[in-house]
Specification:
The protein has strands at 8-13, 24-33, 39-42, 54-58, 66-68, 82-85, 90-98, 106-116, 138-148. It is mainly β.
Length: 160
């Protein structure tokens, strides 16, 4: 579980079993508003466009982390990307974590970073956008452990 930052706590949860290299793990992203006023979260509905907003950093040995999503084309948020989180409320979303096919068996740390710097709704025709009521601004992260099992190698059955 993350620290509490501006009344927000986040937690990432994965299925507890060992996962195989080259597969996709569905991660539950939980947001908890511990405050007494409603908050608004910006989380793009399409997870391909969550790079820099909801990012996984899979730590693999001493090398650079495996970061995803890596981004997509330019994306302008719509109403569907803003989520109200009531006072003392919770919200849950899902995001895919694709495991590299060459990942060796073992335990790995994954850092989930959620951040938002968008304080105003998108503008139109060069006019400034309206402020978003109760928008949560900042950066918060949670770290979870992922267990990777050996890849399954399928062979043809022997003829007798």
């Amino acid at each position: 579980m993350s620290p509490i930052i501006d009344d927000l706590r986040v937690e990432a949860e994965i299925p507890p079993q060992a996962h195989r290299p080259g597969t996709t793990v569905v991660v539950k992203l939980r947001f908890s508003n511990l405050g007494t006023r409603a908050r608004t979260l910006l989380l793009n509905k399409d997870e391909v466009h969550r790079a820099g907003q909801s990012t996984f950093r899979l730590e693999i040995g001493s090398g650079p982390p495996h970061v995803q999503p890596t981004g997509g084309d330019d994306y302008e948020p719509s109403e569907a990307d803003f989520h109200e989180l009531g006072a003392r409320g919770r919200a849950e979303f899902e995001q895919s974590l694709r495991l590299p096919a060459e990942l060796q068996p073992g335990r790995y740390k994954v850092r989930w970073v959620y951040e938002n710097e968008v304080a105003n709704y998108p503008s139109s025709a060069g006019t400034p956008g309206k402020p978003i009521p109760g928008i949560w601004l900042g950066r918060i992260e949670d770290v979870f452990e992922l267990q990777v099992a050996r890849a399954v190698i399928r062979t043809e059955p022997r003829e007798r």
